[in-house]
Write a structure and sequence with these properties.
This protein is an alpha/beta fold and 301 residues long. It has helices at residues 9-12, 42-48, 68-85, 109-115, 144-147, 151-162, 207-210, 225-237, 243-254, 268-287, 293-300, and strands spanning 22-29, 32-39, 53-59, 94-98, 136-139, 166-175, 184-188, 213-224, 262-263. Strands 1, 2, 3, 4, 5, 6, 7, 8 and 9 form a nine-stranded mixed sheet that branches. Helix 3 (68-85) packs across helix 10 (268-287) and helix 8 runs antiparallel to helix 9 (243-254).
Length: 301
């Protein structure tokens, strides 16, 4: 199978919903379209370039218009799905990791979401702590080029010290379809490989490397220029039927300097802010189910 440069499992499937070793389910919740791709065999994982596991995608196009009702709807669904993936609560904390570089806007989603996530581990011993509060801690470890430390090394050390019941990673992704930038959220239980969306592969954050369950949450913020050129050619030619020729052109472009270029929308700062608020809202709902919205907001001030 020809691999498009995308982090979204639903895009790796292309138009084939009956791929061997893969289960696909699609449904709608209001204005939100949901797609679940479950990769069951190693053969399918190798063909699709994705580890075995479950990939749930939530897509809501009104998000690109910064519609507050769409953001709330997405945050509620995200919270429900994250709750479903997490093991039952106990005294162990959840460690939330915001991957990315604060200094590069399309890559700053993880740190921006961390800034809006309610952290409570340090509050639990306080006399003012709510008995309904669950333990949450968070870190934005930065990137290797800035810190000189591999992200997995830092998170590995923290999990060894904190013994969390799960690690929840947030990262920017690359999309195959530019229309999905800023309006799509993917949740997976397979962990994550920092930098994979822009071809900068680092050591993965997975159950195998950390010893605990790793849930990944991401939003596409970039697309490869070669992919965009392919789509532009198909649009201008008015003929999308020559799929093989278009795919061949994309492969040729990926082998040139153009293949290393990535593109992001001009309003990416607003997109990242909107999506960081959405993701943090979903995480806060999932990790603090016994707190009200007003209680969470009060503790965030």
């Amino acid at each position: 199978m020809i691999q498009s440069r995308t982090d979204l499992a639903m895009e790796s499937m292309g138009t084939d919903s009956s791929f061997p070793g893969v289960d696909v389910r699609r449904w709608e919740e209001g204005d939100v379209q949901l797609s679940e791709v479950v990769i069951r065999t190693e053969e399918a994982a190798q063909a699709l370039g994705k580890p075995c596991g479950s990939y749930l995608t939530l897509e809501c196009r009104p998000l690109r218009e910064h519609d507050p009702e769409a953001r709330i709807a997405m945050a509620n669904l995200l919270g429900e799905e994250l709750s479903r993936m997490l093991k039952p609560s106990d005294e162990a904390p959840i460690l939330v990791v915001g991957l990315g570089n604060r200094g590069v806007t399309p890559d700053s989603l993880g740190p921006a979401a961390i800034d809006r996530t309610l952290v409570t581990r340090h509050m639990l011993q306080s006399e003012y702590a709510s008995p309904n509060m669950h333990s949450v801690c968070a870190i934005a470890p930065g990137v290797l080029g800035v810190t000189g430390i591999e992200t997995v090394e830092m998170v590995e050390s923290l999990t060894g010290k904190l013994h969390p019941r799960a690690v929840l990673c947030i990262d920017s992704l690359a999309a195959r379809d530019s229309g999905r930038i800023g309006c799509t959220v993917q949740i997976s239980n397979t962990g994550i490989q920092p930098g994979s969306g822009v071809g900068n592969h680092r050591r993965p954050l997975t159950r195998e490397t950390l010893g605990v369950d790793v849930i990944a949450v991401g939003v596409p913020t970039v697309i490869y220029a070669a992919t965009l050129a392919r789509d532009a050619f198909a649009l201008l030619s008015g003929d999308g039927g020559h799929e093989e020729a278009l795919s061949s052109m994309e492969r040729e472009l990926l082998g040139t300097d153009l293949g290393n270029l990535i593109v992001t929308p001009r309003d990416i700062d607003a997109i990242v802010k909107n999506c960081a608020t959405l993701i943090a809202g979903g995480i806060n709902r999932a990790l603090q189910p016994n707190l009200t919205e007003s209680e969470i907001a009060a503790m965030m001030d």
